[in-house]
Amino acid sequence: MVLCRSIRLLAAAGAVWCAISVAPGPASCAELQPGSLAGGGPGAGYRLHKGLAWAGAAGLLALAAIVLLLLRQRRSGRRAEAELWASSQMLQLVLENMPAFVFWKDRKSVYLGCNRLFAANAGLKSTEEIKGLTDLDLPWKRAEAESYRADDQQVMTTGIPKINYEETQSTADGRLTEVRTSKIPLRDARGGVIGVLGTFEDITERKKAERELQAANRRFSEIIEFLPDATFVIDKEKKVIAWNRAIEKMTGVPKEEMLGKGDFAYGVPWYGERRPILIDLIGMPNAEIERKYEYVLKSPDGTLYAEVFVPRLNRGQGAHVWVAASPLMGADGKLYGAIESVRDVTARRRAEELLAESEDKFKTLSERSQVGIYLIQDGLFRYVNPAMAAFFGYKVEEMVGKKGPKDMIYREDLPLVLENLRKRLDGEVPFVNYGFRCVKKNGEVFYGEAYGAKTVFAGKPAAIGTMMDVTERKKAQADILRLNAELEKRVEERTAQLEDANKELEAFSYSAAHDMKAPLRRLNIFAEMLETEAGQGLKDSARSYLLNIRKSATQMSKLVDGLLALSTTGKRPLEPGLVPLGGLLQEAIAETRAETAGREIEWKTAELPEATCDRAMIKQVFLNLLGNAAKYSRGRAPARIEVLYSRRGAEHVIGVRDNGVGFSPDYADRLFGVFQRLHKAEDFEGSGIGLSTVKRIVSRHGGRVWAESSPGEGAVFYFTLPA
After folding, report:
1. pLDDT tens by residue, 178-234
2. Cα–Cα distance between 551 and 531 in angstroms, integer?
3. What is the pLDDT of residue 334?
């Protein structure tokens, strides 16, 4: 009977081992739950079934009975003692060889015994050394030892087992391990608690594997979450377990509404109804795939690719999407789910359509163009339009891929063409535009003109451009050059004749003006003598006649002086030098003040620079302009004369402004002609030659003259000198 009881206790001990060793490992891909890829799902950790927990408790109770049996040993009789000894030895052997750490303590948490594995873990040489020790005497950290003793007292006080809880433990060699512990109360024959029995299992490697799995899941989840393409994952039951940010943005459906959903719920954001999509074809035979989708590409690893139109995107306007669906295979070769990525290619499709339209337009334009169009690569024509082929007398197919510049360019011009081609392909110049001679199929030479740039064709650099037959234009240009040469010769001849005529005219005008001065002077003298001799007997009318004769002679004399000055200005050679214009202006102002003594004139002058000019001539320009300003501002109180200056590019711009009577801008172009006057002689004296002299002097210096005014608002006369 004792032997039978021992056998039953051995079976109970086996149950104990089963209870403490059957602990699920890390969850497989098949056990992934909705959201588990986010790192927090229940499938990421260890789980213990409720039934297994109760089995562990029952096993511990059986083990407790074994320990009590070993402790009592109060049977009488030699045979019974022998049987008991044999069964005890067997039970001790079982405890020693169990792959779990087993120990038992008395009511004060003092160790009564342990198995060999526990003793080695505690740094003891034999199981006998454990007797009488407490957790405080073992290599555990004090906090650990106190926690163990507190658990003992809880189990013994409440009488309730504490099964499969996790805690840390320091080993004798200083390592920190993680263990799963179970403790039950030991009771005597009357049911009183006399101690505690415990087992624990080292789960350090399992926990490490669990954390590594969780970390891998988190990394996988983060990769999916931040993929630029819209991506989702389903398990083998076709429930959504991942729904990334990009797909949330694309569909407008947040992951909270999609995680855990099955029954083709992932088809709603695309089609508005629950229906299979590309991911559901994973693992299906090709015939089934071809039946459901018109165009699907299947790669050797089972990934499916397709481009489809989905009507629900873009606020119901629909979109073209490129879809890739891949199986998720475990290390065991089993299918645990699938992943699908979606990319909106609507814009690309539209670009392709526009490109096709553009290519069609280009082809139509190129084929009908009268301008030659070409593309050269590797020394051969890769494309020519009909016009280009016609220039050379070939058909298109005779040139493309068969002919190149070396076959069609005049020998002497070929180096120029090849060099320009090289510069384009090497990127030395962005484009070229030049002419050269070409040779037709029949040997005839014609002139071509090309405009070309660099492009890429079939992934390699190429030269593209246009060409025209400019033979007729070249002939026209030659005719024009010949006519121009003849015209230039005629112009030179006429210019020489004109210069001779001008010289004769200037000589005549100078001589005539000089010869007229003496008669005018005598006329004025005789009129004055006649008036003196006649005395008081001269009638008033006769005296008026003599006065008019003298005024006319004086005016004529001034005109002659002006003509002489104008003639001298044109004949005298320039004597240029660096002249301070400010000082020259002050000299002219001083002379003008002397001639206008007694008048109230306000002067204002700008600071003038130095300029290269003929000093005497430019002083005459200042005198004429200042004199005009003083004359035509007569009657203003006060008269204001201002000299202006500005620098405009390569010119010094100088102006003389007055507040005089002004003139109509309609007649501004007449002011600088000889004898041109805009006011009556009786109002303002003058010969009409002063501004003509200004224009001639400034023109000889390479400058310009002009005037601005309005009647009654004064005038400004400008002239420029090269800077």
Report:
1. 999 999 999 988 889 999 999 999 999 888 888 887 787 778 777 888 888 999 999
2. 14
3. 86
Q: Compute, in degrees rounded to 10, the torsion defined by CA atoms 286, 288, 290, 296.
A: -70
User: Would you state the pLDDT for residue 704?
Assistant: 93
Calpha distance 322→355 (Å, rounded): 19
CA max distance for the chain: 202
Quick one: pLDDT at residue 48? Answer: 34
Task: Say how far apart CA 168 and CA 615 lie, in whole Å.
Answer: 110
DSSP labels for 235-287?
ETT--EEEE-HHHHHHH---GGGTTT--TTGGGHHHHSS----GGGGTT--HH
Residue type at 583 in one-letter notation: G
Could you say which DSSP state residue 544 is in? H
Decide if 686 contacts 697 (C-beta within 8 A): no
Tell me the CA distances in angstroms from 466 to 84, 374, 393, 431, 598, one per residue in order.
113, 6, 17, 12, 78
Cα–Cα distances (Å) from 581 to 112, 191, 453, 584, in that order, read: 125, 132, 54, 5
Report d(CA 67, CA 198) in Å as an integer. 11
- d(C-alpha 196, C-alpha 478), whole Å: 123
Low-confidence residues of the chain, pLDDT below 70? 1-92, 288-294, 499-518, 520, 535, 537, 551-553, 555-572, 667, 673-688
Query: What does the alpha-carbon distance between residue 133 and residue 105 come to, in Å, rounded to a whole number?
Result: 9
DSSP state of 331: T
> Containing H/E element for 101?
strand 101-106
Output the pTM of the full model: 0.38
Cα distance between residue 45 and residue 86, in whole Å: 44
Q: Which residues pair with 196 in a beta bridge?
A: 105, 185
Residues 6+ apart with CB under 8 A from 212: none
CA angle 507-509-514, nearest 5°? 95
CA 215/CA 210 separation, integer angstroms = 9
Q: Which residue's entry shows tokens 């890739």?
A: 324
Angle at which helix 581-595 crosses helix 615-632, to 10 degrees, equals: 40
Phi then psi for residue 224, to 5 deg, are -65, -45
